[in-house]
Design brief:
The chain is α/β, with parallel strands linked by helices. It has two domains: 3-136, NADH Oxidase (3-Layer(aba) Sandwich); 150-232, NADH Oxidase. 31% of the residues lie in helices and 18% in strands. A four-stranded antiparallel sheet has the order 1-2-4-3, covered by helices on one side. A four-stranded mixed sheet has the order 5-6-7-8. The longest helix is centred in the middle third of the chain and has 18 residues, at 84-101. The two termini are 33 Å apart. The model has no long low-confidence stretch (mean pLDDT 93). Residues 2-225 form the Putative nitroreductase TM1586 domain. GO terms for molecular function: oxidoreductase activity. It holds the Pfam family TM1586_NiRdase.
Length: 234
């Protein structure tokens, strides 16, 4: 399964079985984490085989059971130009799709009191954990989520005309954005194709964890549109 296929197969799962990850799955995710820590200036940590991978921390939304594996998305706000929430969203969703492509189920989660926990991750003095990803074998299959209409997620410059007149790659990118997970399913993002027909402006709108959602959605757009077809607006 490639990442585009994983994007279509991914549905949030909050109840997991006790089946452990295989050595190959652990190695695949560990390798991807090492690469993303470098490329996104993060300190992502992978907890696997724990009794309670949440370390006793309460969740922001949703009840979870059987979580033995967790990807803790950790970093500092003093990093790349993109803010930490956006960087963790982008990197975390790539890890989510990598896990799904490896035969695993996942769910995004925000943990409260992450600095006062009984878990296996470590937070430095200037670090925080905007979100995490529960990973494992789902006790039941996840379900597709509702999405905003494409015309609300993707806008085009007046010089281009209507959304239907946008290039095919842009519409493919928006189709991929529609599949992106977001806090409470609100999809607080907007992508605009500018008048040159090549540059795309991505924005976080008002909403819960909007910049995490933006990072996730930008990863989906890149995969759907094809990185060689556009450039991001400054």
């Amino acid at each position: 399964m490639n990442l585009l296929e994983a994007m279509r197969e991914r549905h949030a799962v909050r109840n997991f079985t006790d089946e452990p990850l295989t050595g190959e799955q652990i190695e695949t995710l560990s390798t991807a984490i090492t690469e993303l820590n470098t490329s996104h200036n993060l300190q992502i940590q992978f907890i696997h085989g724990a009794d309670d991978a949440f370390g006793g921390c309460p969740t922001h939304y949703g009840r979870f059971t059987g979580v033995h594996n967790l990807i803790a998305l950790i970093g500092s706000d003093n990093g790349l130009p993109e803010n930490l929430d956006e960087r963790t969203g982008h990197a975390g969703e790539l890890l989510t799709l990598t896990a799904v492509a490896s035969g695993l189920d996942t769910a995004w989660v925000v943990l409260h009191e992450a600095g006062e926990h009984e878990g296996a991750w470590t937070l430095g003095n200037d670090q925080r954990m905007p979100a995490a990803i529960a990973v494992g074998h789902g006790a039941r299959a996840g379900r597709p989520h509702r999405s905003k209409p494409a015309e609300e997620l993707g806008m085009v410059s007046d010089a281009i005309g209507s959304y239907a007149e946008a290039p095919e790659w842009f519409r493919h990118g928006i189709d991929a954005v529609a599949l992106a997970p977001s806090a409470l399913g609100k999809q607080p993002v907007r992508f605009t194709l500018l008048e040159d027909g090549h540059t795309v402006k991505a924005e976080a709108l008002e909403g819960v964890q909007a910049h995490i959602c933006l990072g996730i959605a930008k990863l989906h757009f890149e995969l759907g549109a094809g990185a060689g077809n556009f450039t991001w607006s400054e």
